[in-house]
Amino acid sequence: MSTTDTNDTPQPVKPKIGSYHRHLLVCTGPRCSEDGASQALFDSLGDKFKASGLNNGPLRVKRSRVSCFAACKGGPIVAVQPDGTWYYNVTPENMDRIIDEHLCNGRKVEELVFHQAGEVQAD
Ligand code: FES
Questions:
Q1: 76, 55 in Cβ contact below 8 A?
Q2: If you placed Cys at 75, which of 16, 32, 36, 53 could pair as Cys (CB 3.0 to 4.6 Å)?
Q3: How many A from CA of 90 to the centre of ligand 1?
C-alpha cells in the first residue's frame, strides 16, 4: 500500500468552451499593422458577428487574438481555422467581405489570401 495519498493533490479544472464551426485568429502584435488597426479589427468582431448571425448557431465563429504569426507584414492578418486560410490587408471593408463570403457562405476571398494550408506556394 502506498504512503502517498494522491487524493490530496489538487487537480486542474477542466476548461470548457462553447461549440463553434470556425475559429478566427487575429494577430494584434505590433509588427504587422500600425496604429492599433488589428486591435480595432478584433474589437469590431463581436458586433460584426452578431449582425451576421455568426455569434451563435451552427456557423458560430470563435475569435481569438494572437501576439504574432511570424508573418509580420501586410496586416491586419487573420487566419481562419480549420480551413487553414490566411488573409492579409484585412481592413474593415475586407473583413466584411470575409464574413459574408467565407464565414457565412464558405467561399474564400481569393485576392486577400496570402497562404492556404495544404497548397504549394509559388514564389
Ligand atoms: S506581429 Fe503580426 S504576424 Fe508578427
A1: no
A2: 32
A3: 13
